[in-house]
Amino acid sequence: MSSKWVYLFGEVNEAEKAAGSWEGARALLGGKGANLGEMTRLEVSVPPGFTVTTEACNAYLGADNTFPDGLWEQELEALRAVESETGKSFGDSKNPLLVSCRSGAKFSMPGMMDTVLNIGLNDETAGGMIALTGDERFVYDAYRRLVQMFGVVVMDLPDGPFEDVIEVQREKSGAARDADLNAEDWKTITLEFKKIYKSHTGNDFPTDPLDQLRLATEAVFKSWNGKRAIDYRNAAGIEHSLGTGASIQTMVFGNMGNDSATGVATSRNISTGENEIEGDYLLNAQGEDVVAGIRDTKPIAELKADLPKEYAEFAGILRRLEKHYREVQDVEFTIERGKLWLLQTRDSKRTAQAAVRIAADLVDEKLIDKKEAVLRISPDQVDFFLHPQFDVIAKKAAINNGRRIAIGLNVSPGAAVGQVALDADLAEKWSKEEDRKVIMVRPETKPDDVHGMLAAEGILTSKGGRTSHAALVARQFGKPAVVGCSELIIDMENRTISVDGRVINEGDWISIDGTEGEVFVDKLDTVIPDFSDPYLLRILGWADEFRKLGVWANADYPQDAQRARDYGAEGIGLCRTEHMFFEAERLPYVQKMILSQTEEEERSALDKLLPFQRSDFEGIFRAMDGLPVIIRLIDPPLHEFLPSHDSLLVEVTELRIRGDDADKLAKAEKMLAAVEGMRETNPMLGLRGVRLGIHMPGVTKMQVRAILEAASIVAKDGVDVHPEIMIPLTSHVNELKVQQATLEAVAKEVMAEQDMEIDYKFGTMIEIPRAALTASEIAEYAEFFSFGTNDLTQTTFGISRDDAEASFLVEYIEQGILPENPFETIDPDGVGRLMQMATNEGRKTRPGMEVGICGEHGGDPKSIKLCHEYGLNYVSCSPFRVPVARLAAAHAALESEA
Amino acid sequence: MSSKWVYLFGEVNEAEKAAGSWEGARALLGGKGANLGEMTRLEVSVPPGFTVTTEACNAYLGADNTFPDGLWEQELEALRAVESETGKSFGDSKNPLLVSCRSGAKFSMPGMMDTVLNIGLNDETAGGMIALTGDERFVYDAYRRLVQMFGVVVMDLPDGPFEDVIEVQREKSGAARDADLNAEDWKTITLEFKKIYKSHTGNDFPTDPLDQLRLATEAVFKSWNGKRAIDYRNAAGIEHSLGTGASIQTMVFGNMGNDSATGVATSRNISTGENEIEGDYLLNAQGEDVVAGIRDTKPIAELKADLPKEYAEFAGILRRLEKHYREVQDVEFTIERGKLWLLQTRDSKRTAQAAVRIAADLVDEKLIDKKEAVLRISPDQVDFFLHPQFDVIAKKAAINNGRRIAIGLNVSPGAAVGQVALDADLAEKWSKEEDRKVIMVRPETKPDDVHGMLAAEGILTSKGGRTSHAALVARQFGKPAVVGCSELIIDMENRTISVDGRVINEGDWISIDGTEGEVFVDKLDTVIPDFSDPYLLRILGWADEFRKLGVWANADYPQDAQRARDYGAEGIGLCRTEHMFFEAERLPYVQKMILSQTEEEERSALDKLLPFQRSDFEGIFRAMDGLPVIIRLIDPPLHEFLPSHDSLLVEVTELRIRGDDADKLAKAEKMLAAVEGMRETNPMLGLRGVRLGIHMPGVTKMQVRAILEAASIVAKDGVDVHPEIMIPLTSHVNELKVQQATLEAVAKEVMAEQDMEIDYKFGTMIEIPRAALTASEIAEYAEFFSFGTNDLTQTTFGISRDDAEASFLVEYIEQGILPENPFETIDPDGVGRLMQMATNEGRKTRPGMEVGICGEHGGDPKSIKLCHEYGLNYVSCSPFRVPVARLAAAHAALESEA
Which span out of A759-763, B131-135, B341-345 was modeled with the highest average pLDDT? Predict the structure, then answer.
């Protein structure tokens, strides 16, 4: 173990050398200490200071809370260096040096460990500070803070008595807020705090600054083994042996006159991404004033006029930091008597729009390459461009007006505006019967609440976490949601919500932002971001260069196909033909077909359906000129096209008892009998998909005819058409063999009639485990595979999605039995293993076979990564997910390169 | 190609040498020729003759139907050898040699190719035969047969005109049957036949016996390429290049005086297996007389008195044949003037009882070893001992009395007696409402008929084959069935069945034997064969020596467990606990538990159920003292324990309209709401199995407590108890992890309370594809696996058994899309592959882990073979299948040795 326990910020090179690497230096100094060192190394002016190492912490804790040999001496030596650098002296009543003492471990543990500010204040130095700043109120506020923090953090006193004193003083002075307390008030409070300190500890508050420093250092060390910190490390998987560093840094003050200032800024505009410094500052003020909103801040551009030299230095530093970190920086700064100090820099948060523009600009500025630009954009940020969001200006205004009343967990993205409904039945009633927009607000949700959640625009709860029922169900159904918003007090008796004493009645309008987790009162304006954003198109264009997976879309109608193509789809991976059957003018013929007693009747009904199907296909083929279109033959069980069994049963029972309409009864009984004849215990596993195609070959023939007639018609108009006919629910190769024979006969017939050769393919969904397990046989007939991961997940898990997602599946995810909802993200060990097997074994039979996915997972970034790993040719997803999938596919390719 | 085209029967050694092996000789001579040669080689007196080789046939067909060089000369030479051996001459009017000419290929193609008998007859030789036999009627009957067969077989004439002649003659003579026609009639018919021959062929019937022989040989060759024969070979997968042999054999006659006789016999009693010759014969008669039943035959024992020397020779030959073939023989013989001729020998058919005794006896006689004895018994034969069958005596009497009216396909074994019902609704009504036993008789069955089939004792159809709907459904539900009984004429208008003019009215009693495919009028007595048959027990004992698989049983009640143990079960592989819940006194508590609103209510209901469960388990543990008992925790969805949704919906609708009983309505509405709350779209994939155990941990705890309390109680009585607790429907290892924790806590608690250590195991069903795919993880928690192949088949195929077996699955098997019903026999490529993976990967994690099967497949011999191949430890099946499984497991082991 090194016997060097303390490094000045300027000694970061030595720390790095001692630790063998920058990673090692981070471990030795902690993240905060290392970063302060790094800024110092970049010659950015950082208030001088030093860091006590994590090794010192471990030595201290390992020796029953005793400083290791030499530590205190090194700390004193470092302090002397700081004094000489700042020209101030620790404990000097004329020009006192004040310092902060902060913890900082290798990995960030926000809020978990301790900080003490203003170390070095006592009655004498306080007087010196008043003389220097002319701001007695500020000095006593700082002083009382030191006493309070010292009591609570260092001496482990309860916070309550301190807060009580402040409250009593507010009442005495008639002050509504702390900001209204004056210098005298804070002075009184400081005195009272010292009394509390003495009564609780038995000792006077330490007036010797060195005692303060020593005790603060020890408190930081001890906080490493505090319960909160241990719990955090257990949860985050951080090793307990790392220890924390303690950084002791000179306090600087922006309220030392008009040559002083304080502010925050980002190196670019983080709403729009424009390349201009953005931020706020105040002359002759302290940092808190900027944040607290007590005084009106000035935009950073005005600092140029106020303090031109300092501004120029500041702008230069920002550029340098950006260049060094190759990323937009978010900084805090203070100017103390004309001297600029950077207190902190970190990578800046930004809106999705800004992220996209900044990434593109950084490529132009040669700070990052195109790969990195693509990797810096998250799929969610692309998704942002495709859904309504709150208008940025409106939202900013609402925040400034205090209309943002709470922040919870952002569990399901998107913006929602509606009237508060406090239970599911009411939410449903208002939505369905009164056509009102509703936000359902509950302490937490249960399976019984799902109907209300479905009817609502968005969901807000006061309890629950990221895997709570509300979160899971909201994500599943794409409803914006904010959960775990613990500031909300929901009063079911009075039908109100209150936050900080502000009361919202049931029926009042609120707005929630599921992307950010924010809750607003009143309606906020929403906008749909611009998908044609040139920066986004550049990023997606680069993504296209890197990705190996094709991105296709699921589309049943020509307009969907067109949209998909606009968004970059390279084919249609799934065109569901049955959706066409449900349309009002077609359903009667579908029902006639199903209920037909003779082949004649069936054929006549199918003849009516043929032109409808053909014209749908024509539209899709035209939209996808030159690209493949996979059309799936009819899939759902036939009873889905008939009236519901339960309503028929009720109707028949009623008519029987009333006994007044024999004709109607007979008709209803006949329909009931037909529906009962088709009723299945487990329709998901029943007569559907290819089973239906084999059972009713007339339907297959009609559909194949419609596809090839449509293809011939558009081909004659010069459209380059590539239909791929897909059989659903195959489980045995012989099903495919039988269907292929039927299909080829019709295809030949149509092509002869039309005198056209159509380049069509014949393939199958792989959505049943047995199909995956026998892929090598199935590939003898199928020219392509498309994974139907919705059904494949249902059968591989033996879980009915309809039943489970509103019941035990939610329990499972809440309890951590399932790490993720397998209907959102492919389960790699079960479903994924089958996909991998089927892909490999299918291609063994048919080398280079086209394999894709058309289940909903095709639009999920984690699943797209798996599809890339399995070597699929493409993913197919909803048109709105196409841009997201393009980016996610690029990420998958780039990450697997690394 | 050899230039030797003809082999005398006595030249079989040369043929074998020329062909290089006995297999080669069979290919060269055809099966019939080779067998006649083999009998000759055994010095059994076979009527002399020779075989024209298959090579000759191929040469003939290959040369545009021209005899190859030397063939005819060799045939003539062989004929001369036969003449010299028999002392008869071909064409000699005094002592004429008559021969038959029969086809015979390497593989048996029964009824597919041609035979011509009595070659050598013409007007002169007929006169000679009359002089020799003194039986003019017989000779003219033989003569007209030659003309008819020659016309139809050799010259390809239609059979109609010949049959018309016989009918005209019957009318003329007032003869009811052919048997009533006299010598003069047959003489007239012979003349008429020759006229037909001439008018159709333009030539006279050939009177030269050598012409007859030559043409007959050619006819046999040509028949190889007849449509029937080609179709048969295509269906049976026999190569078309093999060709057929032609065997020319001396005709012998048992009607040449009282030193002549003819008969059939088996070398042992094939009903009982006793070691005594059994058969029938007639003195001075021809073979047909024995079969036709015109004259009363004598039991073979009397031949000893009638013809003692010949009998002794006959008995000696039978012993010799048995020894040679190491199998009971079924022979035809003729004694012509004191000379015994064997016409045919083949392995004898026998009853199951006889098969078992014969196999055991042959071991004692050292003709076969124990392995072969075990292999000679089929699983069906063991099954025979466990189900009612027709009494052998009663059945023989019925056959002799002409009460066996038809024979169809034996598609589902067992005996059934009932009243004819001609439609499904009537079958159900009679059975359910009037408690009558019913045989449902239909031309064929359809899915609509299933309710009637279920209500019936047995099923009989006039159409359909082994994979018809009726056959599949009957087998599935274990109903005896005979299908494709084309003699039956079903008259739905008059509600009758008729066979050969005999009319059976609806409601009349009939009996069907699904094991043999027989249909009887009236009731036949049934018996349950004796499972304690000592021969069977010996065979099963030997089977136990050879098998590697354990045989366990599925049993829910103590009496079932006891029966299973009596039948040889070595453990209980599946004890379903929920069956116990359905019993009348328990169901109310189960419903209370399900509908409980508070934990208190739930616990109180569970407390009531605990003693019931405990006492069930006690009984099973006592019955299985020393053996493992696997108990599966509750599996079915809860709504199965509640009233049906539809009946509640009807009740509520009725009560609402009537409006006269508000209390009852409220109660019914409450129950309906509860049932609707639990209703699932696909209950098979819903809240059941381990999902229920996790959702309602109270049930798991109660069940585990009941198991361990029961185990402790019986252990205190000295019972050696080995409970294995099994979790159903696992799909993710975490489910098991959670359940194991719950279970271990309860187990520790109970064992502490009882102060006992119970040797229990914790394991899981593997019945979901994902469980099989992640077996290596699951084996970290599970100490044993048991394949639930019913559910595993449902999920692997994505087929709901309830829905499919009465609908498309039957279509699939009928159409050959599925080679077998996967719910009867494990699908090796899908389900079997998962089983193999899970076994291997599970044991990689937990070496030597116990793996078994408890789905219905555990009692299916083909599936047992697969389980043996996969390396399972045991199969578990219904107690009644245990003996079958013991044998099948031995077969699997012995076959895999080979």
Answer: A759-763
Residues of A in contact with B830 (CB under 8 A): 731, 769-770, 773-774
Give the strand pairing for A761-766 and A784-787.
parallel
Euclidean distance between CA atoms B551 and A202, whole angstroms = 80
**Which of B797, B803, B817 is nearest residue A770 as measured by Cβ atoms?**
B797
Q: How far is B447 from chain A (nearest CA, A)?
A: 10
Could you read off the pLDDT of A666-688 as tens digits, one per residue? 999 999 988 988 889 899 999 99
> Which amino acid, A877?
C
d(CA A342, CA A339): 10
pLDDT at A359 over 90: yes
Q: What is the chain B residue with the closest CA to A447?
A: B677
How do beta strands A438-442 and A415-421 pair? parallel
Q: Nearest-CA distance from A812 to chain B in Å?
A: 9
3-class DSSP state of A483: strand
Residue B218: CB atoms within 10 Å: 18
Contact B804 A686 (CB under 8 A): yes
pLDDT in tens, B501-538: 899 999 999 999 998 899 999 999 988 777 889 999 99
The Cα–Cα gap between B786 and B635 comes to 14
The angle subtended at Cα B297 by Cα B294 and Cα B300, nearest 5°, is: 160
- For A102, list phi and psi in degrees, rounded to 5: -125, 145
Q: For residue B476, what pLDDT is reported? A: 66
Residue A806 — pLDDT band, cuts 50, 70, 90?
low
Average pLDDT over residues A697-718: 97
- B805: contact with A, CB 8 A cutoff: no
Q: If pLDDT is split at 50, 70 and 90, which confidence band does B468 have?
A: confident
What are the pLDDT digits (tens) for B717-731? 999 999 999 999 999
Interface of A with B in 839-868 (CB under 8 A): none
Contact between B808 and A694 using a beta-carbon 8 Å cutoff: yes
Q: Which residue of B has its CA nearest to A692?
A: B808
Q: Point out the catalytic residue in the list B101, B469, B868, B877.
A: B469
Q: Do A770 and B796 touch (CB under 8 A)?
A: yes
Q: What integer pLDDT is reported at residue B1 of this predicted model?
A: 47
Mind listing the pLDDT tens digit for each residue in B447-464? Answer: 778 889 989 999 999 987
Q: Are A678 and A637 in contact (CB under 8 A)?
A: yes
Closest CA to A766 of A788, A739, A784: A788
Look at the block and give the residue holding tokens 């199928």: A782
Q: For residue A709, what pLDDT is reported?
A: 98
| Distance between B815 CA and the closest CA of chain A, angstroms | 10
User: Between chains, do A768 and B818 touch, taking CB under 8 Å as contact?
Assistant: no
DSSP secondary structure of B545-595: HH--SEEEEE-SSHHHHHHHHHTT--SEEEEESGGGGGSTTTHHHHHHHHH
d(CA B624, CA B572): 8
Token code pair at residue B585: 């006194």
- Show residues of chain B in contact with A799, CB under 8 Å: 685, 731
- Active-site residue flag, B469: yes
Residue with tokens 């015979």: B104
Q: What are phi and psi of B268, to 5 degrees?
A: -140, 170
What is the average pLDDT across B123-152? Answer: 92
- Please give the C-alpha separations between residue A286 and each of A135, A752, B738, in angstroms, as whole numbers: 11, 86, 55
Nearest to A773 among B650, B811, B834 (CB): B834
pLDDT at A583: 80
- Measured in whole angstroms, the distance separating CA B897 from the mean position of its chain's CA atoms is 25
Q: CB of A75 within 8 Å of any CB in chain B?
A: no
Nearest to residue A852, comparing CAs of A735, A725, A740, A764? Answer: A764
